[in-house]
Structure formats: C-alpha cells, structure tokens
Amino acid sequence: SVTATTDLPSPVAVTAADTSTFVIENHPYLRLDAKFSDPPAAGNYYMAGVEREGYSGEWIPIFVATSDLNASGEYKGMILFKDDLFNGMNKTMRLELSKSDLWSQEDSVNLMIKLYSLSYDCYMYMLTVEQAGYDSPFMEPVVVHTNIKEGYGIFAGYSVSVFPLKVPAYKEPVWQE
Predict the structure, then answer these.
(1) Mean pLDDT score across all residues of the chain
(2) If DSSP states are collapsed to H, E and C, what string results for 77-142?
(3) Sign of the dihedral through C-alpha 38, 122, 130, 138
(4) Helices and strands counted in the chain (H then E)
(5) Which of 20, 105, 98, 115 is CA-nearest to residue 62?
(6) What pLDDT score was predicted for residue 7?
(7) Are 94 and 36 in contact (CB under 8 A)?
(8) Which of 61, 39, 30 is nearest to 48 (CA)?
(9) pTM (2 decimals)?
(10) What is the pLDDT of residue 176?
C-alpha cells in the first residue's frame, strides 16, 4: 500500500508582456518580459515557457533562457523559479529566445507565454530530475524528489495560464553556408 498527498495550486495569470530585441555575437534574440502578480501565500513555485504556433496549427515549445536572478533551474527548455525574493509582489519574469525560432514566411508569429503554478512536490521533482540528468564526473549524485510513501515516483499537481502574443516574424535565413 502506497500513499501520497499534494496541493493543487491556483493558476496565476500573466497580465502583460513587453518585448525587445538584443544581439549577442551577431545572433539576434527576443526578450519577453512577462508580468504577473504573485499571491501573498508563502512558497509559490513556478515554471515559465513559450510556445509558437506551427504551420498546421499545432503548438511547438521553444527553448527559453533567462538572466533573471530568481531562476533556480530549467525543465525541458522552460525556466523554474520560486517566489522567495518577490513573495506577494508584482513580478516581471524575463525570458529570452533565439529569433531564429521565430522564422516564418508570414509577417508575424503567434506565441503563447505559459506560466505554470507548481505544487512544491512538482517543483522539487522537476528541479531534481533535471539535475540528475547532468553528466559530469565532478558532480555529486542527485536524489530525485519523491513524495510517495512506501514506494517510488511522484504525485504532484500544477495549473497553467496562457498569455497570447503576436510578434514580428524573423525573416533572415536560419541556415549558414
């Protein structure tokens, strides 16, 4: 007999987003500043990501990076963070992505900023499973988080809010000769 419990957090909506571009070593990037209001409850955990609409109407995840000091890790190309430094305040999470991921023959690209509100167990599982996947001879072994009593695995929850955004398509060739 195994048991597990978890909390299902309420979604936290992205209320606005600003964009700008920057260049690193002749490679253009898009910066997305996603704004949201963190609930005052202590211990809120988040994951932020971006998807673009494909040519067939499907949504394709885009790998994002961040320079935000609140980031604590990543999971499958999305950014993990918690509210230790901004509990109960308005927050702007900075996400950065390569403009080559926005290439299109159309004039614009539809994006979705996704803000996941994670349970503590979901956050810890994602953080530790990603750390356990790093392959380095200098790294200490990582124990992947579990909340299953008398067993293995994870029982966790999350909710998600989406913020649609239309940005100009990137028209430069994405291949190099």
Answers:
(1) 91
(2) CEEEEECCCCCCCEEEEEEEEEHHHHECCCCEEEEEEEEEEECHHHHHHHHHHHHHCCCCCCCCCC
(3) positive
(4) 1, 9
(5) 98
(6) 85
(7) no
(8) 61
(9) 0.89
(10) 53
pLDDT at 57 over 80: yes
Asked whether the beta carbons of 168 and 107 are under 8 A apart, the reply is yes
Structure tokens at 142: 């990582």
Tell me the residue type at 31: R
Residue 7, sorted as left (phi over 0), alpha (psi -120 to 50) or beta, turns out to be: beta
Tokens of 103: 């290439």
According to DSSP, residue 143 is labeled P
Which residues, other chains included, contact 96 with Cβ-Cβ below 8 Å and sequence gap of 6+? 29, 30, 31, 32, 64, 65, 66, 67
Q: Is the dihedral of CA 18, 24, 26, 29 positive or negative?
A: negative
